[in-house]
Amino acid sequence: MDGFSKDKRWNLQGMTALVTGGTKGIGYAIVEELAGLGARVHTCSRTITELNDCLLEWKAKGFRVTGSVCDVSNQAQREKLLNAVSSEFNGKLNVLIFQS
């Protein structure tokens, strides 16, 4: 190892990310990692209950995560999600992780 901690090598401060399906499994882990490295993250879930539970957990950890209810298989809902993300991040999106 080169003596650098993970936090010094990887810093996503000022970056924005959209992670679909971020309330379960790998998507959840990706949200946690990106937010833990300082990125502002927006995620989505098909169920409001799961989304709200995760948002509360992330807020308690000090992570900057927002979310929307969205079924990414539905074109109208995807468009609504992208509009929400564009508004939330002032048109700036650095990272997109799309899972269906």
From TrEMBL:
This is Tropinone reductase. It holds the Pfam family adh_short. The keyword Oxidoreductase applies. GO terms for molecular function: oxidoreductase activity. InterPro entries: NAD(P)-bd_dom_sf (IPR036291), SDR_fam (IPR002347), TR (IPR045000). The keyword Oxidoreductase applies. Keywords: NADP, Oxidoreductase. Belongs to the short-chain dehydrogenases/reductases (SDR) family. SDR65C subfamily.
